[in-house]
Amino acid sequence: MENQFELFPVRLRRLRERNRLKRVVLSQLCGLDRSAIAHYETGERLPSVDAICAIADYFEVSVDYLIGRTPF
Question: In the chain, which ranges are E strands?
Answer without folding.
Answer: none
